């Protein structure tokens, strides 16, 4: 009986397949970036703007920026975001005549 429990506990999926850890990391990242960027946006609004509306807009912009950056990083962790896209450039040099 004790041996069966040890064998059951020994079976742990590799980290790249452990979805619970990925979700926990993404939730943590989202909450942190939302809070930090909201504070940065609010502080910038206090320094730069006089109107309460523009101060709130600055705070909302910071919160949106934080959530967007967290979403981008979490998408990369789950494999759904391809990263930076680069243009395909041919290896052949271009000549004046248009011949390769």
From TrEMBL:
UniProt topology in membrane: Single-pass membrane protein
Broad class of the protein's primary localization: mitochondrion
Pfam families: DUF543
Keywords, sorted A to Z: Membrane, Mitochondrion, Mitochondrion inner membrane, Transmembrane, Transmembrane helix
One GO term describing the cellular component: mitochondrion
InterPro entries: Mic10 (IPR007512)
Compartments, as annotated in UniProt: Mitochondrion inner membrane
Transmembrane domains' residue ranges: 33-49
Protein family per UniProt: Belongs to the MICOS complex subunit Mic10 family.
PANTHER family given in the database record: MICOS COMPLEX SUBUNIT MIC10
Function: Component of the MICOS complex, a large protein complex of the mitochondrial inner membrane that plays crucial roles in the maintenance of crista junctions, inner membrane architecture, and formation of contact sites to the outer membrane.
Protein name: MICOS complex subunit MIC10-like
Organism: Nicotiana tabacum (Common tobacco)
């Amino acid at each position: 009986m004790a041996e069966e429990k040890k064998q059951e506990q020994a079976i742990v999926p590799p980290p790249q397949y452990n979805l619970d850890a990925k979700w926990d990391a993404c939730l943590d990242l989202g909450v942190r970036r939302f809070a930090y960027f909201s504070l940065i946006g609010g502080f910038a609004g206090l320094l730069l703007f006089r109107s309460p509306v523009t101060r709130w807009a600055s705070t909302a912009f910071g919160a949106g920026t934080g959530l967007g950056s967290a979403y981008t990083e979490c998408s990369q962790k789950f494999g759904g975001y391809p990263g930076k896209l680069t243009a395909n450039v041919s290896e052949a040099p271009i000549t004046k005549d248009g011949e390769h």
